[in-house]
Amino acid sequence: NSSYTVNNLAILIPNNAATSVTNVTLSYKDANGNAKTAVQALQVNSSKPYATATFTGLGMYVPMNDSANLDVSVGVPTISSGASSGAKISVKLDTSSADFLAQNSAGSVVTSISATPTAANGTFVVRKSIPTFATIQPTSTVPGTGTPLYKFSITADPAGAIEWTHLVFNIATTSATVTNLYLANDSSGASLTDSGVYATTTATTATFDLGGNTTAAKYQQVAAG
């Protein structure tokens, strides 16, 4: 039965990911519908499981009988500047009364959150480098000996090499049975799995797992850039 203005709140990020976050940014709207942002650094308390970014004086407006969106973004430094590859960054709203304050249109103050909210986008994992996949048009559209059904490339980011070992492909057939699917290096023609070892297939997928190799390499590396 009233609109509210959220002025104070705190965002929590796991301590073990704190060095991989430079700051936290909130995006929201005020009572006039204007887009607002607020930025705070993380404060780490080693005795607690979470680092905290505390915001005050926000003026985030929640209309009567309605809802409002709060977007939370984090800045991530480069690996050389302190971020850790593999660090898992997740955010949640601190439900502590010491860090939350909202006021309704009559001036009544609320300092507690009735339910524990969850972030919509889960966990962000820091990576030093990422692969980029691209489809390459085969030289022939007619399947035949030595002619691939499908060609693709994997490119590594200039920041560092990447290694891959497990790939799954969607497959579809019409009035045909496909057996002995294998993956080959395009430049050499050599199979990337052990001799006589082919993809594990279902009716709709083909899975290549180099980790099961005993003679061939258990992973393939793509150089940086």
Q: What is the compact description of this entry?
A:
The protein has 225 residues and is mainly β. Helices cover 0% and strands 36% of the residues. The chain is built from no helices and 18 strands.
What order do the helices and strands come in, and which of them pair?
Elements: E1 4-14, E2 23-29, E3 35-40, E4 50-55, E5 60-62, E6 71-75, E7 88-89, E8 92-93, E9 101-104, E10 109-110, E11 124-125, E12 131-136, E13 151-156, E14 162-164, E15 166-170, E16 200-201, E17 205-209, E18 220-222
Antiparallel strand pairs: 1-4, 1-5, 1-8, 1-9, 2-3, 2-6, 7-11, 9-10, 12-13, 14-18, 15-17, 16-17
Describe this structure in words.
- The chain is mainly β.
- 0% of the residues lie in helices and 36% in strands.
- It contains no helices and 18 strands.
- It has strands at 4-14, 23-29, 35-40, 50-55, 60-62, 71-75, 88-89, 92-93, 101-104, 109-110, 124-125, 131-136, 151-156, 162-164, 166-170, 200-201, 205-209, 220-222.
- The strands form six sheets. Strands 1, 4, 5, 8, 9 and 10 form a six-stranded antiparallel beta sheet that branches.
- The radius of gyration is 26 Å and the shape is elongated.
- The model has no long low-confidence stretch (mean pLDDT 91).
- For the secondary structure, the number of strands is 18
Work out the strand percent. Answer: 35-45%
* Main beta sheet: 6 strands, antiparallel
Question: Structural class of the helices, strands and pairings?
Answer: mainly beta
> What's the shape?
elongated
Radius of gyration: 26 Å
The number of helical elements comes to 0
Distance between the termini: 57 Å
What is the typical, i.e. mean, pLDDT?
91
Helix % is under 10%
> What is the H/E order?
EEEEEEEEEEEEEEEEEE
Please, what is the oligomeric state? single chain
Low-pLDDT segments, ≥5 res: none
